[in-house]
Amino acid sequence: MKKIFVLFIALAVLVGTSSSVYAHSGRTDKNGGHNCSAKSKKKGLCTGYHYHTKKK
Fold this sequence. Notes:
This protein is of the alpha+beta class. The chain has helices at about 1-20, 40-45, and strands at about 35, 50. The longest helix is centred in the first third of the chain and has 18 residues, at about 1-20. The radius of gyration is 18 Å and the shape is elongated.
């Protein structure tokens, strides 16, 4: 019973972390992207408009 419980917890953690990989705290426009903030540009994280969704 203990092994099943540990396996269930491990699976829940794995699924929970893999689904948040594409999470983004900012808002995106209808194209799935947005302009970088001045703070992000200053840190060198991005340079301008960029996408957060995969194009098909």
